[in-house]
Design goal:
Length: 378
């Protein structure tokens, strides 16, 4: 199957996911190179297993059991057939799609309010694998989904989330692997729907997460938060794209990273935040923020916010980015109040993430972040 399209050129930001080639066939794309804008920060050699034939099978589990009249869950061999609203936008995404051994489809029925979180665990072991997860919330339904990526082998993951009119979804993605992983998460929002997304990456040798949002109806809201904890030898990329094409929609993006490398194993994070407001997207209100906290001398944080506006009839638009170290004055002040230096640093780092952690309602995920923080701070 080779479904190849070329989207209209988006002239303000180079090689965004809304422009250029889209195809389900990997060979339609040029070989991945750091000379390409979307790959210039990436240690491509680590992703080689995911750019080749993926002969492994991702283990998929979904818990707990739900009333089938409210939540239907089907896991089967992946057919590779196109899905409305999603076409891979780079060679890696296309290869992940082409080689997926299985797919899991979760559908929340119209008007259903699912109180318990839907827990999905994706595990890749022994050999590189990929999978497809499709989540559909029908009109006026509500659900919370926690998706955890784990394993010791390279893993590729395509996640497609579709929200019907006035549906509400809370989607949490957790990456906690010891092998390279690439996650492409596409969200489609219909009229008056609400998306709350949290991306949590707890380290890893090479992690690339690409959350995208497309609006198909007016009045929709998207809140995209992210946390990355990069220790020695970790490379973490979060690349978000919010594509405003219809009127009166809102988006808010906030990603925070902590970096603590070592002399022989430096750490690195990359955050790319792309927001496009098309000419027809009147009344758009959007903001994106990235903050990076660097501990020690062996870390690098790259932060690139991109905002393209094609109409002046908007409610608001802006972005902010900052990278810094622990504030010595704050540490000194806390020491003057009888707090040890190490504990002062711990409290400052905890406070740095507290606003985002407070928006994650899954206690196990919050505990995982805090445990990882303790490990990075020694």
């Amino acid at each position: 199957m080779s479904t190849m399209t070329t989207a209209p050129h988006s002239h303000g930001v180079p090689q965004l996911l809304t422009s250029g080639l889209r195809s389900y066939e990997p060979s339609d794309f040029e070989p991945v190179s750091t000379r390409q804008e979307t790959w210039r920060f990436t240690p491509i050699a680590l992703f080689e297993p995911l750019l080749e034939k993926l002969d492994g099978v991702t283990s998929v589990s979904v818990e707990p059991n739900f009333d089938p009249t409210q939540v239907s869950i089907v896991t089967s061999a992946f057919s590779g057939d196109p899905v409305d609203g999603y076409v891979p936008t780079d060679r890696l995404a296309s290869n992940i799609w082409r080689n997926a051994a299985n797919s899991t489809q979760i559908r929340v029925a119209r008007g259903a309010v699912v109180d318990a979180p839907i827990n999905v665990t994706l595990v890749s072991e022994k050999s590189a694998s990929s999978s497809v997860l499709i989540i559909e919330l029908e009109q006026e339904s509500q659900a919370s989904v926690v998706i955890q990526h784990r394993g010791t082998a390279a893993q590729g993951s395509t996640i497609i989330v579709t929200l019907g009119n006035a549906a509400s979804a809370d989607i949490t993605l957790v990456q906690d692997t010891t092998a390279p992983i690439a996650v492409y998460a596409h969200h489609s929002l219909a009229r008056d729907s609400v998306l709350k997304s949290a991306v949590v990456t707890l380290g890893g040798p090479c992690t690339r997460v690409v959350p995208t949002v497309a609006y198909t109806g007016a009045g929709a809201d998207a809140l995209l938060n992210g946390i990355a904890l990069a220790g020695p030898g970790d490379h973490i990329e979060h690349r978000s794209l919010v594509n405003h094409e219809v009127p009166n929609c809102r988006s808010n993006v906030a990603y925070k990273n902590l970096l603590n490398g070592s002399a022989d194993s430096p750490s690195r994070t990359v955050w790319i935040g792309d927001v496009i407001i098309h000419a027809a997207a009147l009344g758009t209100d959007t903001y994106e923020l990235n903050r990076n906290l660097v501990i020690g001398d062996h870390a690098r944080a790259d932060s690139v916010p991109n905002l393209e506006i094609e109409t002046g009839e908007i409610a608001g638009a802006g972005h902010a980015s900052a990278t810094g170290r622990l504030d010595d004055e704050q540490v000194f002040y806390m020491q003057s109040r009888g707090i040890s230096e190490s504990e002062a640093k711990r409290l400052i780092v905890r406070g740095f993430f507290e606003d985002l952690l407070g928006q994650i309602k899954h206690e196990s995920v919050v505990d995982s972040v805090r445990n990882r923080l303790e490990g990075l701070l020694g």
